[in-house]
Amino acid sequence: MSATAIKKTAPRKTKDGPTPIDAHVGARIRARRGLLGMSQKDLGGKVGLTFQQIQKYERGANRIGSGRLFEFSRILGVPISYFFDEMSTDLKAYAEKGAKKGKSIPANAPEAEILDRRETLELVRTFYQIEDTVVRQRFVDLMREAARVCSKK
Q1: Alpha carbon distance 60, 94 (integer Å)
Q2: pTM passes above 0.70
Q3: Does 81 fall in a domain?
Q4: For the segment 54-109, what is each residue's pLDDT rounded down to a tens digit?
């Protein structure tokens, strides 16, 4: 078959748009960006996008292609697998079975909301500013004890 005989077609698009998995990946990008203290504008500048495009990725409104995901992993200093870590059991089941069979989209995991809170990101950033590993471990011990004591009230 000659090159001129190949029919050109429009780029392939998904029927239903982004999935809950796209939202999960976007949330992981937002969490990592926040931990690094990087703004959406900063991240967008490094990949040649506007901050509005980064917002859409982070909200899961737009899908992220594999090449772009690779860029994000390089800029954010994480392996690509990071973006798929900590998926809820429901979301994993959806990814494995439901995505192609039209099953309903699972509810967001409540623990994902904790990672989106500004105070969580501030706590983690501050924690990693402590260079002494022994002090960091003692801090973790202190927080566990405080949580234990507070949960008994």
Answers
A1: 16
A2: no
A3: yes
A4: 999 998 889 999 999 999 999 999 999 999 888 877 777 766 665 554 444 444 44
Residues 96, 147 within the same domain = no
Query: What is the rounded CA–CA span in Å between residue 11 and residue 73?
Result: 25
By residue range, what is the domain housing residue 83? 15-116
State the burial class of residue 31 (Cβ atoms within 10 Å of its Cβ: 0-12, 13-18, 19+): buried
What is the total residue count of the chain? 153
Same domain, 101 and 122: no
115 band by pLDDT with thresholds 50, 70 and 90: low
**Domain holding 55: CATH number?**
1.10.260.40
Cite the beta strand spans of 17-57 per DSSP E. none
* Domain count along the chain: 2
* Percent with pLDDT over 90 in the chain: 37
Residue 7 lies in a domain: no
Residues 65, 59, 11, 15: is their CA dihedral positive or negative? positive
Check whether 153 has a pLDDT greater than 90: no
